[in-house]
Amino acid sequence: MIHSTWPTLTILVFFPVAACLVLPFIRGDRAVRVFALAVGVVELLCALPLFGFDLSFSGYQFEEKAEWVRSWGLTYHLGMDGISLLMVLLTVLLLPLCVLCSWTYISKRVKEFHISLMLMTSACVGVFVALDFVLFYIFWEAMLVPMFLLIAVWGGPERRYASLKFFLYTLAGSTLLLVAMVAFYIAGGTFSIPELSTKTYPFGFQCWAFLAMAIAFAIKVPMFPFHTWLPAAHVEAPTAGSVMLASVLLKMGAYGFLRFCLPLTPEASLFFAPVMIAISVASILYGGFVALGQRDMKKLIAYSSVAHMGFVTLGIFLFSLRGLEGALMVMLNHGITTGALFMLVGCIYERSHSREIAENMGLGKYLPAYMGFFGLFALSSLGFPGTNSFVGELLVLIGVFAEKPWVGAAVIPGVLLGAAYMLRLGQKLAWGEPSRAKAWTDLNAREWLYFAPLAVLVVYIGLAPGLTLRAIDPTLTRVLGELRTRSVAVASIPGNRPMPELMPQTIAARPEADPTVALPR
Amino acid sequence: MKFDITLLLPELVQLAIILALFLQSLAKPRPGESGAVMAADTRWVPLAAAAGLALAALSLGASGRLFWEVYQIDGLSQFFKFAVAAGFAIAVLNASKQPTLAPDKRADYFMLLALSAFGLMLLSSAVELITIYLALEISSYSLYALIPLRGKDPRAAEAGIKYILFGAAATALALFGLAYILAGQHSSYIAVLTGKSWSWAGSPLGLVGLTLFMGGFFYKLALFPFHFWAPDVYDGASNETAAYAATLPKLGAVVILIRLAAMLQPGLQVTTVLAVLGAASMTFGNLAALTQQDIKRMLGYSSVAHAGYIMVGLVAVSAGGLAAAGFYSLVYVLMNLTCFWVICRLSGDGRNLKLNDLNGLYRQEPWLAFVLAVAALSLVGLPPTAGFMGKLFLLSAAWNRGYDWLVIVAAVNTAISIYYYLNLIRHAYTVEAEGGSVVVRAGGRFWGGVLAALLLILGALPAPVFKWAEAAGKQLMP
Q1: How far is residue B314's CA from residue B321's CA, in Å, rounded to a whole number?
Q2: Helix (H, G, I), strand (E, B) or coil at B126
Q3: Is A42 exposed, middle or buried, given 0-12, 13-18 or 19+ CB atoms closer than 10 A?
Q4: Which of A481, B51, B186, B386 could, after both became Cys, cross-link B459 (CB 3.0–4.6 A)?
């Protein structure tokens, strides 16, 4: 474990905010872009100390703790374990790439655009490293406004509808998360996530808390019946917005399941696992089928996200090490691959001014480098062996076949669908007729610059996933171990099994949780 | 008992302002002296109000009793006096260049405004029902005269009549209730009343009386079903008057409701009445606000919803709950005044603004657009603004006190309300203007920025202010 006085995480969270304060004083669009890129690179450099992460330690590292509001037990508490490490690195990596891919795509209100992008990054990093429930919630909600603006100001023709739908959906979900947070504070006497995870709660309380949190996270993931905001938002958002949305925002939902549902409500997680697995399988199949029928490239990738995120939630609710490993790997890899695919769509949109597949056909001959990257990321998206997504999907499949072979059998068509829609898209893009691409130029140096790192990651994680797995294994083992021991502890309390009334029993069943402790007097 | 005049410093400053304005309003413009010169003379008022605010901040820790125990200086009264002084300072600064007010009426206008704030200060210290009633009337009567002061606008006169009729009816109700309380409980001192039973079985007369008496304050707070005046009065009164009427009088109502609620226990019938009215108020207010096009009407309905949120803290009937209600009302005043600040700056000729008038604000006035966005997000209760912290304290205080359903209703209401607050941001940021421009002075931008910064700072670091509210709550319910 690393004890250091260097506040790595605070810097990662607040450096972009500080940069935003400087940005309004910079004149000229080009200077703004250069500055934003520099901020992205510096932010990436600030993340270098994270490579001192102790791979063998399963608890929280780089912890920072300060008092915030004492009487309500609020603390400024940051820290990261294996789960957050990957997500933070992914978020930080994407900031400079997003700046690069918006270099020519965004031409109006450049300054405000980059401010929104940086605030987004701050809030996203904050979500992944906050260890205080309220702090987490603050970052979780703070991210909505810049994302709303990214879609509503720089989006496509239907941007008003899409941005409002995005905001309403996610906010409606998280209001119940707020109630769950308050309930946990009263029941557990603290807002600290590590402390809350060591306490046991009555089964009835767990069930309601699980449902309240799961709706918020399921909307964010998004899981099957709650997914409708995603295609709208993706299609209308500018490229960088889509990238942030797909690569980071969706992961927050899955991260929430891992960080809150499993440790805080272990018994309820087990209780609701069949439902969650069923919804996950539905997401995989539904997302795949709908993606197959799309004509708009962004919509296709958006629906493929629904399917991929189904693998994540499926892996989480298997409660096996393989499943959790797979879920985390899919989270990371979906972030890399889908982010890259959205950048590719943005890239070709700048040339053809259309996202329709039919308008972008036959690129293989005229834009070989572009098609090369597209082929690589498409293969990765469908989980081709040797690419990163293969590792994640395989782990989830191993987990699912080991635990529930019938579910595995239901998922296999989903994997095939992935191949079908991505190959169909790739084929049309490469060889489709008629082609309008004769006059278009191939990738320029700037475009190479933002695809290359992602391509390297695709191949690197695909061929050598060992380091990544070693980083997440200790944490996942701990999460799983706690889940097993603590769900047993709850199950052994007699009379706790049936789904009981909402709150009154919470107090009755937990005499040690004196409500007066929680209320400051 | 020793009479310590220093305890009354905030009130005395306010009184001095009123007297000075009274003398100033007596002066007739001499021939040859134009009205504009007279108007310039009221520039000292914001400074004096700022001095009053500083004194109110200094006297935050004071305590004592005056005037035969009817006037109590304690944590709660000083916190609310501070809030009133802060709100008054912002309100007079906001109204210093009111376009719809003849310059020679400015001294009278400010005098009435100061008198109303003075009444609210008395209200925060009054701990005896008749004193409360008198203080309430001091604060209301001057407001009745303020509402119609909007050039020669007939709508303002209409609003004034509505306000006074509603007010008279509500006050009559309160007086009626006061009589019942006296008859049933044989005392008008809150300190004595605290020990009495307030259940239906214990004292039906007292319970009915208390409910009616609270009705008078529900009217001030614009709580459902006493809310009808709010949108109309905001709509009719000038922007600057509406800014005052929408914010400060609520403080007076909340402080009395906090004192009355401290007499109760959770689970009493009257607490349930508070909870039901709170739930109805927030739901109705938010639903009605969804369709409004006029920004002031929208804020009127939003204030109905916010009155409901404050009830969440009151029904908790715990030190934490009362502290949360107090803190939230301070935040409410601040965020609403911020919103009105932007409206008043944008409405150069004093007309009412529609949502469409905000179009393209980001381009014409990026700074005010940001201020408006912060205020709107704070009204929703989104982090990292003060509105979120206030709401978090309210919800945490009320959970597990027997009204969990109210907490859930409040949370769901946040989701409803986002739509219309987001409309403000949407029009300001994503819609392009069709023409027309606004002229805003640098001072308007600067103070708007200060208000927005206050909202953000209170959201990130609520502890320094919240601790005063908390001390007040603990004094009431040890």
Answers
A1: 6
A2: strand
A3: middle
A4: B386
Q: Which residues of B131-159 are buried (b: 16+ CB within 10 A; e: fewer)?
A: bbbbbbebbbbbbbebbbbbeebeebebb
- Contact B457/A at CB under 8 A: no
Q: CB distance B318–A519 less than 8 Å?
A: yes
For residue B180, the surrounding DSSP H or E stretch is helix B154-185
Q: Is A322 helix (H, G, I), strand (E, B) or coil?
A: helix
Q: In sequence order, which residues have a C-beta less than 8 Å from that of residue B97 and are 6 or more positions away?
A: none
CA-based radius of gyration for chain B: 21
From chain B, pick out residues whose CB is under 8 angstroms from the CB of A167.
418, 422
Tracing tokens 């179009």 back to the chain, one arrives at B359
* Predicted local confidence at residue B37, as pLDDT: 55
How close are the terminal C-alpha atoms of chain B, in Å?
A: 25
Angle between helix A466-491 and A321-352 (nearest 10): 130
A149 touches chain B (CB under 8 A): yes
Count of domains forming chain A = 1
The three-class DSSP label of residue A296 is strand
Q: Which residues pair with B447 in a beta bridge?
A: none
pLDDT at A128: 92
Q: Name the residue of chain B whose CA is nearest to A157's CA.
A: B430
A398 in contact with chain B, both atoms CB, cutoff 8 A? no
Helices assigned H by DSSP within A64-109: 82-101
Tokens of B155: 């709508």
- What number of H helices and E strands is found in chain A? 23, 2
Instruction: Look at the block and give the residue holding tokens 């797979």.
Output: A326
User: Residue A303 in contact with residue A294, Cβ under 8 Å?
Assistant: yes
| Distance between CA atoms of residues B53 and B83, nearest Å | 9
Under 8 Å CB pairs connecting chains A and B tally to 110
Give the residue from A374, A382, A347, A383 showing the smallest Cα distance to A432.
Answer: A374
Do the chains contact at A168 and B418, CB–CB below 8 Å?
A: yes
Q: Point out the residues of chain B with pLDDT beneath 50.
A: 39
* Prior bond of A434 cis (ω within 30°): yes
Q: Which of B370, B409, B430 to mutate to test the interface with A (most CBs of A within 10 A)?
A: B430
Instruction: Please give the average pLDDT of every successive group of 10 residues along chain A, which has 521 residues.
Output: 69 89 86 90 88 81 83 85 89 90 84 90 92 90 88 85 88 87 86 86 88 90 87 89 90 90 88 90 91 89 91 90 90 91 90 86 86 91 88 90 88 89 89 82 86 91 87 86 75 46 40 38 33
A3 in any annotated domain:
no
Please judge whether B407 and A179 are an interchain contact, meaning their C-beta atoms are less than 8 angstroms apart. yes
- Mutation site for B-interface testing, chosen from A70, A113, A159, A178 by largest number of B Cβ within 10 Å: A178
Q: How far apart are CA A343 and CA A347, in angstroms?
A: 6
Other beta carbons within 10 Å of A476: 23
| φ/ψ bin of B68: left (φ > 0), alpha (ψ from -120 to 50), beta (otherwise) | left
Reading the block at residue A270, the tokens are: 């087990």
Are B422 and A164 within 8 A, CB to CB?
Answer: yes
Beta-carbon contacts of residue B441 (< 8 Å; ≥ 6 apart):
none
Instruction: Say if CB A92 and CB A37 are below 8 A apart.
Output: no
Segment holding B367, helix H or strand E: helix B366-380
* Whole-number pLDDT of residue A514: 39
Indicate whether A17 belongs to any domain. yes
Number of residues assigned to chain A: 521
Q: Of the candidates A350, A332, A357, A360, which has an alpha carbon nearest to the alpha carbon of residue A454?
A: A332
CB B85 within 8 A of CB B56: yes
> What is the signed CA dihedral for B210, B213, B215, B217, rounded to 10 degrees?
-120
Structural tokens at position B357: 């008038």
Give residue A139's region: left, alpha or beta (phi > 0; psi -120 to 50): alpha
Distance CA B355, CA B357 (A): 5
